[in-house]
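User: Structure tokens for this complex, please. No commentary.
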Amino acid sequence: MKKIEAFIRHEAFEPIRAELLDKGFPSLSIIEAKGSGRQKGIVERYRGSTLTVNVRPKIKLEVVVEDKDKSVVVETILKHARTGEVGDGKIFVLPVEEAIRIRTGEGGEPVLQLHEESEIPT
Amino acid sequence: MKKRLLIAGPVAAVASLVLPGVAFAAEATPILETPEASINAMWVIVAGVLVMFMQAGFLLLEVGFSRAKNAGAGVAKVLVNFSIASLCYWACGFALAFGGLGEIAGTHGFFLNVGSSIEEAGKSIPFVETYSISPAAFMFFQFVFCAVSLAIVWGATLERIKFSAYIIYAVIFSAVLYPVLSHWIFGGGWLQANVGMQDFAGSTVVHLIGATGAFAALLLLGPRIGKYTKDGKPRAIPGHSMPLVGLGVLILWLGWFGFNPGSTLGAIGGRFAEVVVVTNLAAAAGVVAAVAVMYLLSKTIDIGMAGNGAIAGLVAITAPSGYVEYWAAPIIGAIAGVIVVFGVIAIEKVIDDPVGATSAHGLAGIWGTLSCGIFTSPRLAEFNEVGDPGLWYSGSLHQLGAQALGVGVAFGCVFVVSYGIFFLIKKTIGLRVTAEEEDAGLDISEHGMYGYPEQFIPQPEYSTGLQLGGAPPAVGAAAAPAVSPMTTTEP
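Assistant:
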């Protein structure tokens, strides 16, 4: 299992989410992150004084998938998050030891699979 | 405020001729029951209520310019200060300000013990007869001015002052300091009667006095932690809500239509409507000038400075609003808008004034008071019976000199007394919260709660009662309970 962590622009999230859902990866988390990189901070002007904000807001997207699905997810992120400008973000891929579904307590790779239609409450 | 000669007798006589319904009973009808007195009381109370609402304006302006961790502190501050001032001004302040025409202070009317009729009250409060107004309406209107002046002091001290300092200074300010100064300039004291200083609604009395108290407090209080870099350059510490600042400014602007026009102390003759227009023109010019100057300096339309421009224009027109013609109002307001921008930038280099009160109320207050010495028209100087026409009409510096003397005296006296009070507070109970308390925010450290709890307490300790079906499954169990959480909450 692999965990894919991507730091992306806010506006890139929605197309990535939609395409991952289409491709069968509905489970993901996002976290509002602030960070610094090669992209410079923002200078705020306030009643004649200035204030440099050295970190910029980004979205941290987290998805855990089976090893074989890693490249599909990475390519989807690259496709939508890349503008070519400084500040597009980065993707990190980490190994994951275990996955457990809290509702049932079951473990292993089945946890990462789509639910059967019958399991989804209407 | 104008100093009319005591003309209640002639007014009653004229009224008895003009108003036939009153004519027969003229001898017997108390002045308080005449239509004139009722109309005047109505307008002055409406104006006083508008001025009272300015407390909401100060509250929102200050809360908006604070960081979120200090948002709740302003609420307690405004309510407690207004209430202390209400009691102190009734008990002591009003008598010192208006209880007689002595040069230094009044001597009658403590606890408003002046009788309820104009005839009775007029014996100790000359203005009641002059303006033919109920003593209660007159006292309420004067009190809300005192409360505004007190509120101005605290805007500059946001985010680090101890609450106990508010209480001590508020008692002295509203019982003695403000009343004595307002007696000198509003109540027939020496600056008004002997020097002929013109201050229609209080650029000096209300605004400069408040800003001077703030200045004294700031010198002893010091800047907020983090305001200055190691090499002494000011940093911006942005307030948490510009919409609240905007609402505050607009409420103050609205309140000013009570502040200046109400200072006619009557509605007969419609003079107050002219003052409304004059006031609005100056405020508008203040915004336009402040925004334009700030744009030239920084290439941004500064939101906070647009608000400061409005306040500066309003403060500046407060003294001349009853003395100048329409054409002078935008000039006075625009110059105030320029002054406030450079004032905020210059003052911020040395003292930390989060709302810009020392500029918007202090510098603009001084300019507004001096502007009477330039723009006061002969017609209105005569109408108000205070001072002479300004430089523009008379070519004489005499009135400007009187204005400058008044500004100097007011600033000097209030500064010395306020600095003394704050110095004693600092040496005894302390003026400022500890660095830890300042870092945590006044809401939690002084008031024990947050102004915006959900921003600081992500999850309360109590459970919201999450109930899922079935016992917790053993780890590794394959089967899922076929019950959805939705159905388990139903009986």
